[in-house]
Amino acid sequence: MGTIKYWVEQLSEHKIIPYEILYETLSNSNDLIFSAFPDQEMLVLKSFVRVIKETMERNVNHSLEGLPIVGHHFSFPMELFIGCFDIVPICFEGVSYLLAALLTLGSEPYYDIAENFGHPYHTCTSQKGVIGMTLNNLFEFDAIITPTAPCDNTMASYPFFKWWNNTPLIIGDMPTPHDPRSTHYFKEEMMQMVNELGNIIGQEPDYENLRKIIAHHNQALEYQAEINELKKAKPCPFESLLCPAIAGSVPLLHGKELAQFFKEVLEIGKKRLKSGKRPWGEEKIRSVWPYMSVLFDIAMCEWMDRELGMSVLFDMFSYSFFDSIDIESDLDTIFMGLSNQALNYPMTRQSATFADPFINDSVFLAKEYDANCAIFTSHLGCKQSVSLIQIIRESLREQCGIPMLTIDLDVGDKRFTSAQTIRKEIENFVTALNL
Ligand code: SF4
């Protein structure tokens, strides 16, 4: 009895249990990956697992030290909140999909808890996972932050947390048009959000630290731009897994950690280009994925590289369509830069406004990186993106001369369309391409 009480008391200190699960999983994966693969194999995966593991460890330690737990939507430059405050940031969408990628059962038990509670089955799994985890008492948030973007799913899901246990919810109103007027408007919203968060957690914003964190993020953007340049090489020097790895890194890592990861990836690419060696073999097909990678089966990337000779050059999260921020400028200008980044964040840029950026970005990536096909993951929860599939297909055919395969699935729940079915569809598509 005493042991159980002791255990429960210990557990009550733990407010971010899914991050602890991820830390344990990543620690085991790290040991396995480094011991099982030869030195020159799976370099991006090795770098990704190590840096995410360190991030999880830091967050878990900070949570045990008592720092406020702040849940947030993925579509913020998190430098803003991390820079201003001493907090433990929890990215809802990042944690749901990282569990989907790393655990055998993924986030599916938590989707089921949310659905049994009454959350509709056809909503986006990116938020549904954390709803289930919260219902299961695995998270305890001091505050939650979200913009009113990029979709109805976001706006319908976040108020749950306020309703369920009265967690303070800070909402930034993001306008639908993305123009200079909107940038100014959302800048004011962001300033207001910082003040609100400071009042809730009892901290004063530290704007000098914000500048330092933004400087690291600027560095990360420079490395990312260089990585993108290397992707123009034929064959592409990066494994396809880099796309979901970047999708997992951008919302979870920040500042120094993100810069470190991109620096390591850049070095990997440079060395491979110099040596002319790609451990997984020949590149026959170059693909772009206008939407998301299949997150519940990231091993599919390795299969495409090795079995099909297909490179995935970009998914929606692996290209940043925004500029860095001048940290020497005044605070108002820095916030304008952050607002501009938020409006152009991956997925927010393409899904929160009118259709043009989504179509144009898809065409741009295919043309610029000389892709010979596209694959669109038609994600069950994402109604507005699915409505654009035909227009994107026609645009790619007319402007780039390439075909696009569409696969109906849920990127975070393997029970809708299995990994085997998805692989079969890709295989058939590749056969039909006859390249
Ligand atoms: S995938 Fe679609 S529905 Fe899900 S968060 Fe992104 S925009 Fe919203």
What does this structure look like?
There is one protein chain. The protein has 435 residues and is an alpha/beta fold. It has a domain at 207-320 and 354-433. It has helices spanning 2-12, 17-36, 43-65, 79-84, 92-102, 108-117, 125-135, 152-157, 159-165, 180-201, 207-230, 242-252, 256-275, 299-308, 331-343, 348-351, 356-368, 383-386, 389-400, 419-433; strands at residues 69-72, 88-91, 143-147, 169-172, 285-288, 310-314, 373-379, 404-409. Residues 1-9 have low confidence and may be disordered. Bound molecules: iron/sulfur cluster. Iron/sulfur cluster binds next to helix 8.
Explain briefly what this protein structure is.
This protein is of the alpha/beta class and 435 residues long. Helix content is 58%, strand content 9%. Strand 1, helix 4 and strand 2 form a beta-alpha-beta unit.
